[in-house]
């Protein structure tokens, strides 16, 4: 695996250390397991959905947590009494998992639902009022001395 050298970025850019850290972390700890599989899609200009295949998991066996722009989805399978069952083939992966998704600033989880073995997590970018574009009214010049008109 090739390492990513971000030294030039650190020398010439100010305030991008978080982005550089994310890139280094992604290059260093790329997830080697593809389980459980997932999709990330955009559902609107500022709306997203993550779908994770969690067949066999009940809602109480799944946990979603958001902390410091990191969404963590964990599944802990309750113990089954497999001693009474005799499998000829066991291909269903009923193992615990943890998936992490780095969220951009102001992206929040709005809803999560489990249907037909798919955990759907809806996300939305919600900019604070201070960051939204706003129109600035343009005033006219005021007289220099109150009560007097300016010379035309």
UniProtKB/TrEMBL annotation:
Keyword Cell inner membrane on entry: no
PROSITE patterns documented for this protein: SHSP
Domain of life: Bacteria
Family annotation (InterPro entries): A-crystallin/Hsp20_dom, ACD_IbpA/B, HSP20-like_chaperone
Gene3D superfamilies on file: 2.60.40.790
Protein keywords: Stress response
Annotated ranges, domain SHSP: 29-141
Keyword Transmembrane helix: no
Family designation: Belongs to the small heat shock protein (HSP20) family.
Annotated protein name in UniProt: Molecular chaperone IbpA
